[in-house]
Amino acid sequence: MTAIIYETFEKVKVFEQGQAGAMDINTKLAVLDQIYRVCDDFTGKLDLACQKYCAHCCTCNVTLTTLEGYRIVRHLISSGQSNSFEKLQPALNRKRFQPVVTTNELAELCALEKDLPLESSDPAWGPCPLLKNDECIIYAQRPFGCRCMVSKQNCQEAGYAEMDPLMLTLNNVCLQYIEHIDAHGFTGNLSDVLGVMAKEQNRQKYKSSKLKVAGTSLIANLPIKILMIPPEHRHEVKPILDSLNNIQVPMKRSK
Ligand code: SF4
Ligand code: SF4
Question: Residue ranges per domain, the chain?
Answer without folding.
Answer: 7-245
